[in-house]
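REQUEST FORM: STRUCTURE PREDICTION
Request ID: SP-0412
Submitted by: Lab K.M.
Chain count: 1
Length (residues): 179
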Amino acid sequence: MPEALLWAVAILLAVAAGWAWNSWRHRVSTRPPGTRPDRAATDRAGGRRPAPPRPRGTDRPGKPRPRDSDRQDAPAPGEIWWADVPYADGTGSKVRPCLVLRADSRGADVLKITSQDKSDRDDHVRIPTRDWDPGAEHDSYLSLTEPIRLSSAAFVDHAGRCDADLWKKVRSLRHLPTA
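STATUS: Completed
RESULT:
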């Protein structure tokens, strides 16, 4: 009996250590506050809450963003926008960059952009990041899976335009809707 109790304690400690390591690793892998607008708070239960939307026209909270002469107030195909994008499992959302495929007055079809390395996957392509996120330390990855429909209210801020060569490649993919 004492040996079984020791094994039970050892297993519980291993599970707790794994949970703590994963939690720590997740916190460390995110950027420091203020470097990206998609930084979301974590609630006491360990789940993520969506980041509050930033006011239009600001790059960072409290810093006005210079108005681009070609910037529009509504998303257009080929543009990259920061938008409140729902998680795939439906448990919430976060503000993240996305590429607009098609847009109308009610919203737009978008592809998600992630900063996580997806170079080993066929359903993601590298997307140059520094043109629209000057604080980025490396390129991001564009998901080529099914687009997501977002309402007009989900769009937070214009980030920039998609690289011309990548946009041409995305437009040639038959399973994706384009303007």
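NOTES: The chain has two helices and nine strands.
Reviewed by: T.R.
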